[in-house]
Amino acid sequence: MIDVKPYWTAPAKEYQGKIQIIEGPDEPTIAFPLVLEPLTPELSREAILSQARKLGPQPSDKTIQSPIRQLLDANGGAIHFKGLPLKNADDFSEFMFALAGSGERAWKPHEHVGMEVLRRPQANNVLTANEGPPSHFIGWHNEYAVSPVHPHYLALFCKVPPGSGGETSVCSSIALYDRLKKDVPGFIEGCSKKGLVYNIPHNAEQVGGIVGGNGLYKDSAFGPKPGEGEEMPETEEGKRAMVERKLLDLAIRGGWHKGIDKTDESLPVWQRRGFNWTWQENGDLDVVHRVPGTRQHPTLNQPTIFNALSTRYTNAVANNTFEAPFTFKKEDGTEGVSVPPHFAGLEEDEVIPREWVQKMDEWQHKLDSSITWDVGDVLLIDNFAAQHARWAWEGDRKVMASFWDQPGMEGVPLKA
């Protein structure tokens, strides 16, 4: 690991786990996540920005291995910055743009496509975190693993810490792959050769206070991109045609194409099957994504889990919906639907055996490190190396998010 002195120190915190990313007698044990804070209390925002620029990519860089990239690779893909003099969204934005660096290897703000999660802009490339109710556990996931278009990095910033609870958990995706490959090889094989299925509901209009809620026609979903000269079609038919065109483009970006040979067994099932969708009478849209569940880490060259199954598993357990038609009775007597994790199928998708997903859940809990928040904290996550989750909380909690991409930082799907 690079030396972070003389400015930074890496103190031990109670919430850090001690894990081996790859199990083995000769493999190192690390404190996860890495914690970095100024060696002496820092009150100057300019000093912090200057130090962040030193960690980020430089114009002279020939590879993506900047100091911040090396720190992520050596420490499980997650860094918790503490003791920062950041008070608001603008401070967080400036910190992230400093850390993103400059030159050809600099990080770029991620452009969201097909996103169903409502995130409200707070500052330049700073958005609200998921608006799901405080009582709702958001399970471990790689950010937007449901889609072919996902950020390479994400950062979370605490403006107001929760009264109680509300920790953000991180779990090594590479360690998760390593453990599951040994315990449930059939699950790993299915994630690669078949792929995973996600039923994504899109509200026609923006709806606050729920886990999803992004409006279908917003530019971060399937609406027109003003910067690209697009305009909203005038007719309902035109709007739907625009959405469907963008859905097909999203599937193509994932590896599917119109002339694909569904009998070609050298291709994974998710790629041969592609996406499909259903329009509801009220104008909402239900989309079915089929995507890979494993990828190759771009700098560590290690296989990694890449999914968003945890919440779906947790909900299916709570509602006992592991068998079709996946319906249950809500407290108010109405019928609800809770679809359990599925592998992609050529004709029909298939429920993943409950015991396989249960084993994943057990390992996520064992590998978990749940960080506690203070004002000004920033949690930086390599999206290909680590999953994150959010525990329920009481009181107030304001956490913001920022999403980034970097040239050369692609996680290629594993096919075997």
From TrEMBL:
Keywords noted in UniProt: Oxidoreductase
Gene3D superfamilies named among the record's database cross-references: Clavaminate synthase-like
GO molecular-function term, one example from the UniProt record: oxidoreductase activity
Keyword Oxidoreductase attached: yes
Annotated ranges, domain TauD/TfdA-like: 57-400
The protein's name in its UniProt record: TauD/TfdA-like domain-containing protein
